[in-house]
Amino acid sequence: MSFSLGLLCRQCCHSILSPRPALVREFSSTPILALRRTKKIPVLSKKALAAKARKRAAKARKHIYENEKMTLESAIDVIRAVEVAKANATYELVIKTAMTRGSIIPKGRIALYRETKARPEDRILVFAEGRQADEAKSAGAHIVGGIELADGIISGKHHATTILCSTALIRAITPKLGRVLGPRGLMPSERRGTVTDDFAGYLRRLSGTTEWKGDKNGVIRIPIGKLHFPIEDVVKNVKQFVTAVKRVTGNQKDTEEKGKSKSVKPVNAITRVMLSSTQAPSIQISDI
Predict the structure, then answer these.
(1) Interstrand relation of 219-226 and 90-97 (parallel, antiparallel or unpaired)
(2) 35-44, 139-148, 252-261: least confident range
(3) Is this prediction's pTM over 0.90?
(4) Helix, strand, coil percent values for the chain (each to nearest 5)
(5) DSSP character at residue 76
(6) Cβ–Cβ < 8 Å for 217, 223
């Protein structure tokens, strides 16, 4: 009995006094950044982006009045019935365009088949010198002069609805008039065609036309006729204006432009054409 107890105590002492193996933590030598797997975003081509946009547009929720459309003549009949008490009411045409990133606000000039109201008289100021100044005066410009006209514009002495400038003087007047005429939309620019040396041609195109312009969202509004106009005149005005908008937005090309240039003009799609009046509802047109 004593022998077994001594053997047991000897084993316990041996187990207590014997060193235990130390715990060793193993560290990886692989860099932490290498373990992080970043997902690479594929770069889509223009064709793939266009296809993706078409799919997104197809899945988008349709407007609640998407299917409620009328022909142009039917819409005119409805508006006439609603506005029966006001014979001098005005038809308003609204064209909505899809303003994509980088799109230019649609604008232009047009001479309608039958004008809704009297055209406001344009007062034209031209920056030109020498022979070009004489041509501008003979073409019908109201105020013609050189850089000295800039001080009169800043002080309010000279008032004009349209300001043209020759290519030789545009750099001289820009530092003085850029901040004054820019916010008012009167600063001459090559993109708008108001920086030119052909003043006679520009003034010829300007006479007898009305300017139209869309807002920053691409919505174009224009009075298109009076209620007492014959239906045929209103139809001609609407079709003429829609054709002009299609040309500016790239939805329709002239045969002359197709033969001259091979460059593809970006298309600003027309999403909706609506006709309304003062009290009548907006009616979406289906046959334009």
Answers:
(1) antiparallel
(2) 252-261
(3) no
(4) 35, 15, 45
(5) H
(6) no
